[in-house]
Amino acid sequence: MSPKSIQTGLSRTCRLCLYRILSNPSSLKRSLVIDHRNRISNFFVPTGGIAYKKDSQMDVHSTLIRAGYVRQPYSGFFHYLPLGQRVHQKLEQLIDKHMRSVEGASKLALSTISSEELWQSSGRLEKGLSELFRFEDRKESRYLLSPTHEEEITTLVSSLVKSHKQLPLRLYQITRKYRDERRPRLGLMRGREFTMKDLYTFDATEGAALETYREVQGAYKALFEEIGLPYIHVRPILLPPAEHFLTNEKAEADSGNMGGSLSHEYHFPSLSGEDTVISCRNCGYCANEETAQIAPPKPMLDLAVSRIATFHGITKDRKTLINIHYPRYTKATDDGVLNEVHAGRVKSVIRDFDPSVMNALDLWFDAFVGYAHLAEEGSYSRVVNIFDARIPPSHYKDIPPSRFSKMIEKKSMEDFPIPTASITLDDPEFGSSLNLLKTQDGDGCPKCGEGKLEATGAIELGHTFHLGTRYTVPLRADVLNGAGEWKPMVMGCHGIGVSRMIPAIAEVYSDHNGLCWPRVVAPYDVALVHGSVKKNAAVPPKEDIEAVYDVLVSGGLVGGTDVDVILDDRDKDIVWKLKDAVLVGYPIVCIMGKSWVNSRKVEIEVRKTKVKLEVELADLRTVIEGLLKEL
Ligand SMILES: [Zn+2]
């Protein structure tokens, strides 16, 4: 910055300050005490120390920003600030511990960049086009930022492993991945850059691969339990493998050609969750909302005609208007919950249905082609009326005039015969299973037939796939078996959304005042806060504070077990510092204030249990160790 540009725009008083600063270079630096102690003054924590207003809404993403963990430079991208980086690192260490429990798992780090050519050969390039970050180098070779690494790891392993005697092989990494989400949202929950743990397993036989799969399930269970994260373990369902990583469309009937596969999802129940998990308490049935089945719905005999709604959809060729008639509410009489049409279920009836269109009715009128008596067969616009099985057949004729019929009238098209078909309860193909609505609380359980389903908002934190030979066949990853034959290796892949886990943990462990990390991922175990409420009151001397810090860290002994402590030595009053410690969410705060000055006692506050204690220095370390074991 030139002196001239410094002057521009500054008031006279500011210029005076600037002059003082420039004429005294040491005041340009922040004061740092560098020793073996962790000091907040030396640490970059842009945080506020401000409590939430009581009526403001809880939002984990904004709490993480306010408390100085992350910043979001662009939609879906995040900078981890030092506090956030520490939480991430601890989470990573914890995941390492549990992955090592899967016998023989080794950690590696593959390049972020993969080639389009490789993705072409696995057949995934075309499918993932809209969500891949792609680019070209100076030689015009095409690359992409990997959203997942099945192709790369299979190629790597197949170049190094030739015999069944080198198996099983379990390789995992915790690295950044990229997906050009259409709608990045909910902070770290759904970013365009995210950290994922992905474990790839290679076995010689299907049986051995399934055994590995079970072993990984055990490690996942132990991991979630150690963090104390509640999770819903979605039971095995048939899914097309790996496409999951690229799109959110699950179990689309037409993706079945990838080969069905064993899969488990680990969902974190959360009101802000964008997925819905459906479960039955009676029999334990549990499925993702996209794939959940329900017992075939029965006609709601007491449904009033006025409570029937109509959804308009359109086909990809824009010729067929789809009118779906369904009960507006889940209950026939009182209000119940608003029903919603389920795109996947409409697609199972009309395969060409385009769920991305919002204004189907207008679009269909705009694209109207010819009339039946003028056009060639099949080239004209037409209408399909579909009646959800919940609508009693006696109501079909009485459905109230919809916007559709009003528009027909307005456009004076009444006299033209528009080919119209109906799909109803009598339909031999779909008939009584015509369930076109999203699964809701209270729907009948498809498994036991007795229980009622419950819908819970959820966020997917983990996903395990038994991939079989999905990648090893097209990428020719074969090994010689005992009989001297070349056979494709059998693969599994097991993901955990690491960056997603941070807001999930934060959501479970937080309140109106701020965060409350479980010790295992907390940025520090203990914050040591000192000072006084009043400006001129006596404060503990520097030597005392440092002595207490040293006792906390190692019991004052060389070689004592380390407790992770940070000293809040900022030039602020103690009330401000305490509020800040609560916002940041250290499991334990040790306070040196009035009690220390009067009676040489350290006050201890446990964030989670709200326990408050006063202890003498001699007992401090033992008490802290005991408390930390419970956190
Ligand atoms: Zn059930």
TrEMBL record:
Signal peptide from the UniProt entry: none
Alphabetical list of Gene3D superfamilies matching this protein: Anticodon-binding domain (3.40.50.800), Bira Bifunctional Protein, Domain 2 (3.30.930.10)
GO CC aspect terms: mitochondrion
Family to which this protein belongs: Belongs to the class-II aminoacyl-tRNA synthetase family.
Keywords noted in UniProt: Aminoacyl-tRNA synthetase, ATP-binding, Ligase, Nucleotide-binding, Protein biosynthesis
Gene Ontology MF terms in the entry: ATP binding; proline-tRNA ligase activity
PROSITE patterns: AA_TRNA_LIGASE_II
EC numbers: 6.1.1.15
Reaction equation(s) it catalyzes: tRNA(Pro) + L-proline + ATP = L-prolyl-tRNA(Pro) + AMP + diphosphate
Pfam family, one: HGTP_anticodon
UniProt keyword Aminoacyl-tRNA synthetase present: yes
Protein name as it appears in the record: proline--tRNA ligase
Organism from which the protein derives: Tuber aestivum (summer truffle)
Residue ranges constituting the Aminoacyl-transfer RNA synthetases class-II family profile domain according to the UniProt record: 84-523
SUPFAM superfamilies, alphabetized: Class II aaRS ABD-related, Class II aaRS and biotin synthetases
Gene Ontology annotations of biological process type: prolyl-tRNA aminoacylation
Top-level taxon in the UniProt lineage: Eukaryota
